[in-house]
Amino acid sequence: MQDDELHKAFMNARRSERLQLLELLESKLDRLAADNFTRDQVLSTLKDWINIRRSTDAPKVEKPQ
């Protein structure tokens, strides 16, 4: 694979990941709106959701034996 092809494939993968995350965020906001959450509740819930996503997507670090 040429460097240009690799770069294009990498950028397409990143774009796809961003779009997927935006779809998840949109879905989350729709659910919060349907439940009539207040602004503060929405912000708090989204911060919690972000922290959970970060912790589950973080690479696992192996401990030396």
Textual characterization of the structure:
The chain has 65 residues and is mainly alpha-helical. The chain has one domain. 78% of the residues lie in helices and 0% in strands. The N and C termini lie far apart (38 Å). The mean pLDDT is 88.
Q: Which features does this protein show?
A:
single chain, 65 residues, mainly alpha
Secondary-structure topology with pairs:
Blueprint: H1 3-34, H2 39-57
- The chain-level mean pLDDT equals 88
Low-pLDDT regions: none
User: For the report, how would you describe the main beta sheet?
Assistant: none
Order of secondary-structure elements:
HH
Gyration radius, in Å:
17 Å
Class derived from helix and strand content: mainly alpha
Count of discrete domains: 1
Shape: flat
Number of helices: 2
The helix content, as a percent range, equals over 70%
Could you tell me how far the N terminus lies from the C terminus, measured between alpha carbons in angstroms? 38 Å
Question: Short description, anyone?
Answer:
With 65 residues, the chain is mainly alpha-helical. The chain contains 2 helices and no strands. It starts with a helix and ends in an 8-residue tail after the last helix.
